[in-house]
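User: I would dearly like some help making sense of a protein record. I have put the entry right below:
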Amino acid sequence: MVEDGEGLAEGWQVLEVLVLVKTYPRPSLRHQEVVCTAGITRDGRWVRLYPIDYRDKPYDEWFKKYEWIRVPVKKHQRDRRPESYRPHPGKPIERIGFVPAEKNWAQRREIALARPASNMCELQKLGPTTQSLAVVKPKEIVDFMIQPDSPQWKPGHQHLCEQLHLFGSNQRPLEKVPWKFSYHYYCCYPSWHGHKQVVLDWELFQLFRKMRDRKGEHQALVDVKTKFLHQMCGADRDPYFFAGNINLKRAWAILGVLGRR
């Protein structure tokens, strides 16, 4: 639902959004640090909220996935993706309700799957200025791939992280996880090569860091693959992917997984 925003300048509006996606934070030369957040409005439209400096917000604005938030927004002028909106930098994000994981995620799935799932092959043909967020139903998940990645952010971003910590940021330095995680899957045409798309879900990276600190690097990678391939994407879980275009070309990423318990 879109509401009129009291006390907001022209062009701003207030949206109520069920958060379905939170990506792992990354450095930004323009915004210092950002988390890409996306979800569905009361009337079933996808919305991307960007930028959000999540870790620097007051604790009472630290919203969770599957939480309804009320946020003043304006259509993003620098982002041609139709779902992209800029949150008001001077207004708080209000948390207004949480959708629990009861009855095998029934209520969460009802909201997220209110519209038919998209086909990744067709999304890539349409292009990101037509649609850049979607729910995709994989026909077959071939593998969850783990590949080495750089242990540091690219030079400009690494310097920014070091400077923020040096000059008194109240947050822990943003860690660069030295691994890249991807799904290889077919959306509907098994004769094709399928899709290999990177996973950006914050929960995945947090799981890796948590397990690494407890069990070591190797076992953490085993645990991540077990969770995101064999558990969340098991045949009995009826999995769907939350997918998003990340760079206005035709590169899509997996932003989250929707399944059943």
Confidence is low (pLDDT under 50) at residues 157-168.
